[in-house]
Amino acid sequence: MTLRAVAERAGVSHGLVRHHFGTRDGLISATVAEAASRTMYLEINDEAPLSSRIDRTLGELRVQYSTMLSEPGTEAIDDVYAQYRAEVGQWLDRHGAAADEDTVLLVVAALDGLALQRLSRGDEVDVDGAFAALSRLIRQLGRND
Questions:
Q1: Which pLDDT value is given to residue 74?
Q2: Are the beta carbons of 42 and 54 closer than 8 angstroms?
Q3: Distance from CA of residue 97 to its chain's centroid?
Q4: What are the tens digits of pLDDT across the range 51-107?
Q5: What percent of the chain has pLDDT over 70?
Q6: What interhelical angle do 24-39 and 14-21 show, nearest 10?
Q7: Using CB atoms within 10 A of its CB, is residue 91 exposed (0-12), middle (13-18) or buried (19+)?
Q8: CA distances, 40 to each of 4, 17, 19, 36 (Å)
Q9: 3-state class of 30 per DSSP?
Q10: CB 114 within 8 A of CB 130
């Protein structure tokens, strides 16, 4: 991927893309930040079934996951995930569960895994049932602390 190729595909000048993003890494960071910001609250703050929330944001999730795999440690990913972890911590607090760093990481990994399962396996996997089980587990942890 080059800035020139992106400009050509978008039907704009190479200079315009360079002006807005600076470098290829700048473009990648901006793309990931935009995709991730659209999906950051996907699992936590919406009442719709998880599968429909994932389906609404499939494109953004594909960009986010493919970039995470090809460009690990991108600053945009790090910033978005820091905010995401904070939101998960608040969700855990609301359910009365421990919001320590290890628990937050575990829940983030579970939510990411459910989204990835939906992306890769589609309707074959019951992400709604798994998310309900995760929510019950979190509530149970909150009662046991």
A1: 64
A2: yes
A3: 22
A4: 776 776 666 676 666 766 666 666 666 777 787 888 888 888 888 888 899 989 898
A5: 70
A6: 70
A7: buried
A8: 30, 26, 27, 6
A9: helix
A10: yes
* Band (124; pLDDT cuts 50, 70, 90): confident
Q: Give the separation between CA 79 and CA 11, rounded to whole angstroms.
A: 30
Query: For residue 11, which phi and psi values (nearest 5 degrees)?
Result: 75, 30
DSSP 69: H
Number of other residues whose CB lies within 10 A of the CB of residue 117: 16
Cβ atoms of 57 and 38 closer than 8 Å: yes
Other residues' Cβ atoms within 10 Å of the Cβ of residue 19: 9
62 token code pair: 């594909």
CA distance 20 to 97: 43
- Quick one: which of 46, 105, 88 has its CA closest to 54? 46
Residue that wins the pLDDT comparison between 117 and 36: 117
Query: What average pLDDT does the segment 105-126 reach?
Result: 84
